[in-house]
């Protein structure tokens, strides 16, 4: 298991993220990165996007997921979610305790895993 400090990006200061694995993809121009993210209760990730799909699963807690141009999702442990490439979104842990989510990203290898943005 690798710590995400080796691959810093815009979210590194707000959340605890642990890179679980990183590998080449069979999809040309994409790599697969899997990350366990921990969000303290009441904390928001901030509006950000990824250079590819995010396929996620809530491991613990309740997370409010706002996705630009979509309805807000209320996700609890056991729920999955999908965020399209380059789509601004913001996650906020509603508790109780620290929220934990496991995300698998299918992303371009030449871009930061996450970039802060201003929603439209």
Describe this structure in words.
With 120 residues, the chain is mainly β. The protein has a single domain, classed as Jelly Rolls. The protein has no helices and eleven strands. It has strands spanning 2-3, 16-24, 31-39, 48-49, 52-60, 62-67, 73-76, 80-83, 89-93, 99-107, 115-116. The strands form three sheets. The chain has a six-stranded antiparallel β-sheet with strand order 1-2-3-10-5-8, with no helix packed on it. A hairpin with a 5-residue loop joins strand 6 (62-67) and strand 7 (73-76). Mean pLDDT is 90; it is low at 1-7.
Strand content: over 45%
Number of DSSP strands?
11
- What global shape is seen? globular
Order of helices and strands: EEEEEEEEEEE
Derived from helix and strand composition plus strand pairing, the structural class reads mainly beta
Major sheet: arrangement of strands: 1-2-3-10-5-8
CATH architecture: Sandwich
The average pLDDT score comes to 90
CATH class: Mainly Beta
Q: Terminal Cα separation, in Å?
A: 36 Å
Q: Segments where pLDDT lies below 50 for 5+ residues?
A: 1-7
Give the fraction of residues assigned to helices.
under 10%
